[in-house]
Amino acid sequence: MIDGKIFEIGSSPSTNHQKISGYLVLILGNYLINKNYHYFSAPFDVRLPRISKDNKEIITIVQPDLCVICDASKLDVKGCLGAPDIVVEILSSENKSN
């Protein structure tokens, strides 16, 4: 959901996409082990408030392929409230525009 509009996501990620995602999770996980940072892979909601952090004010929710959050206060039971410190989106041939 971006600016209150729901966007359809295409088909499930390809095998190649999942291989890349898994590889990046291993790299990030190994690097961040014993550090006070948190990493998540999709599906994981990142809620971006416009003004207030009240859930009624959130009109943009995205699910990046991978994200790293350094500030644990952004995490709650619904995911991340605010922008992650690192966002990774894996592109594929289906993502390119003509």
Walkthrough of the structure:
The protein has one domain (15-91). The chain contains 1 helix and 7 strands. The chain has one helix at residues 15-32, and strands at 38-41, 46-49, 58-62, 66-69, 75-76, 79-81, 86-88. It has a 4-stranded mixed beta sheet, with no helix packed on it. A 3-stranded antiparallel beta sheet has the order 1-4-7, covered by helices on one side. A hairpin with a 2-residue loop joins strand 5 and strand 6. The chain starts with 14 loop residues before the first helix and ends in a 10-residue tail after the last strand. The model has no long low-confidence stretch (mean pLDDT 84).
Task: Please write out the topology.
Elements (H helix, E strand, L loop, with lengths): L14 H18 L5 E4 L4 E4 L8 E5 L3 E4 L5 E2 L2 E3 L4 E3 L10
Parallel strand pairs: 2-6
Antiparallel strand pairs: 1-4, 2-3, 4-7, 5-6
Key words describing this protein structure:
98 residues; alpha+beta; 4-stranded mixed β-sheet; 3-stranded antiparallel β-sheet; 1 helix; 7 strands
Summarize the structure.
This protein is α+β, with helices and mostly antiparallel strands. Helices cover 18% and strands 26% of the residues. The strands form 2 sheets. A 4-stranded mixed β-sheet has the order 3-2-6-5, with no helix packed on it.
The profile of the biggest β sheet is: 4 strands, mixed
Helix and strand content put the structural class at alpha+beta
Please report which band the strand proportion falls in: under 5%, 5-15%, 15-25%, 25-35%, 35-45% or over 45%: 25-35%
* Tally of alpha and pi helices: 1
Report the helical percentage.
Answer: 10-25%
Separation of the first and last Cα atoms: 24 Å
Mean pLDDT: 84
Helix and strand string, N-terminal first?
A: HEEEEEEE
